[in-house]
Design a protein that fits this description.
The structure is a single chain. The chain is α+β, with helices and mostly antiparallel strands. The chain has helices at 51-65, 116-124, 163-170, 172-195, 246-253, 268-286, and strands spanning 14-16, 20-24, 29-33, 38-39, 42-43, 72-74, 94-97, 101-102, 105-112, 126-127, 130-131, 141-147, 150-151, 198-210, 213-217, 226-230. The chain has 2 domains: 14-97, Phosphorylase Kinase, domain 1 (2-Layer Sandwich); 101-243 and 278-283, ATP-grasp fold, B domain (D-amino Acid Aminotransferase, Chain A, domain 1, 2-Layer Sandwich). Helix content is 28%, strand content 24%. The strands form 4 sheets. Strands 8, 9, 12, 13, 14, 15 and 16 form a 7-stranded antiparallel β-sheet that branches. Strands 1-2-3-7-6 form a 5-stranded antiparallel β-sheet. A hairpin with a 2-residue loop joins strand 10 and strand 11 (130-131). The longest helix has 24 residues, at 172-195.
Length: 292
Amino acid sequence: MSQVVLETNLPFPRRQGKVRDVYDLGDSLLVVSSDRISAFDWVMPNGIPDKGKLLTKLSLFWFANLGVEHHLLSSDVPDVVKPYDKDGALEGRCMVVRKAKVVPFECVVRGYIEGSGWKDYQETGRICGIELPKGLMQCSQLPSPIFTPATKAEEGHDENVSFAEMAQSVGEDLANELREKTLAVYTQGTKLAAERGIIIADTKLEWGWFDNRIILIDEVLTPDSSRFWPADTWTPGRSQASFDKQFVREFLMSTTWDRNSPPPVLPDSIVTQTRARYVEAYERITGCSFAD
């Protein structure tokens, strides 16, 4: 099971990301979600079976329920691509999307304090220059969600920046619009997820210019772009159980891997448990069986 990783090689101009392959179809883009999984800026040598389908199906759910303009045109395999997909491998894991000019910042929103935000807070009492109350614990809920942008890195790790730095780069009006839209998506998403027993601790969104307006692009509120915690076991002061790839990160941190050399193969047990977490996140949030 642990060796299954869908790869695609279609005869169209391609840009390969850590997880997704993006093909230029001329008037639109085809985004294909593979089963690859990354952690600590490395793509693991083996993937998580069905991960690409899970990410795609969950993004489709959010695009349909958030009420925000987005890039999705269709989730069907395009006619021009079907002759190259004889075994149906693309079914359920592709999106045809509008071409948008990507805003060069990750739009991150945090409702709880964990990860790089927790590290920054311990060192400075701030996250991305935002002063926070004293005495917060790891995974504490913040008084209100905060917008903490990051630069988009082609390689390596994104770097947290202040809102002022972002505004200086893209302009005050656009920065304010991105903050407002990002917080609105997070607020709506966390409300729905809470009704299903899931805390969305933080997430990162991407936006792009299309027809002189800003639209939501890429994936949205998935276990790859967000921290999902079970609400019934959340306890500040420690790491949380999760439905996201934190499980893989914690396994890697328990090994002797130095993060500067190629990562180890994920054991079958880690692959199986990671897949189960992604499936549970999807099924809880959507109310649908993954097999449906």
